[in-house]
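Deviation from plan, reported transparently: nicotinamide-adenine-dinucleotide complex.
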Amino acid sequence: MIDPATDRVLITGAAGAIGTALRNGLRAGWANLRLTDARPIQNPANNEEAIIADVSDRAAVEKLMVGVKAVVHLTGVGGEYTLEDLFRVNARGVFGVFEAARLAGVERIVYASSNHAFGCYPITENVHPGLPPRPDSLYGAFKVFGETMLRAYFDRHGIRSVSMRIGTYRTLPIDQRSLATWLSPGDVARLVDASLRHPDPGALIVNGYSANTRIKTHDPNWGFLGYQPLDNAEDHVEMLRAKGVDVDGPWEWLEHGGHHARAPERKPR
Ligand SMILES: NC(=O)c1ccc[n+]([C@@H]2O[C@H](COP(=O)([O-])OP(=O)(O)OC[C@H]3O[C@@H](n4cnc5c(N)ncnc54)[C@H](O)[C@@H]3O)[C@@H](O)[C@H]2O)c1
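Because the crystal trials were delayed, the predicted structure below was used instead.
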């Protein structure tokens, strides 16, 4: 059990978009937060300790773990990335954080995976986390690597974890696809909070979406975890319509991963 009143929780990638939402959402309920990022972390509160570190610096990561009971691992590169960055941050960095956590006796890891872990499933298939992964990109394949590592860390070392297959995290929905895939700032905090508090999630994989009317996945693990999303992208449909987004036309994407699943062939690496 992770006790919000006493146990220290480390959040990596804390200066990023999701990290900032988590700080806002968790600060009131979690007494002891350690925040880390390669970039400066703005205005730490009294119950937040901010440490600048690069996730590929193993010695620094081991120091971050001292006295930590749970880790929320958000650090990652996405969007435009080089193969080297992906290896350094999303593979070696993930390994370094999980391994340092194990050595330090960390009991819970919450990991920012992605919907791109199953992005090649056709949109007509009502995907759930029990299906085999079908990553739509190297980025998605590396997220599956992290999930698989956590499976092994539970089976071999008893470290409980939740891998969140986050959809589209934004302050507000941004396009037609995100009417299905949006994860709001409030809901990402609720999802992480539930993932930290659950007494025994095993090595759970869970979809990270808000309660969107147009959602195209289903997830029995929400009930198991006690995750109750409160936001719905549909509440923002008029805002999108006013911006010229086609909110009424046919669905734009053939696969869950959107454009990732139809990206042009890359040059040989
Ligand atoms: N935003 C989304 O829609 C979305 C969807 C699916 C998954 N995710 C995953 O969630 C996580 C957080 O996403 P985000 O949107 O907050 O991204 P973000 O880019 O806003 O934040 C990532 C943070 O990681 C930090 N970082 C990058 N490389 C680092 C390194 N080597 N050492 C230390 N810090 C480093 C960056 O400085 C940044 O603050 C990522 O792992 C991402 O892949 C995000």
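The beta strands are 9-12, 33-37, 48-52, 70-73, 108-114, 160-166, 168-169, 182-183, 203-208. We consider this an acceptable substitute for the interim report.
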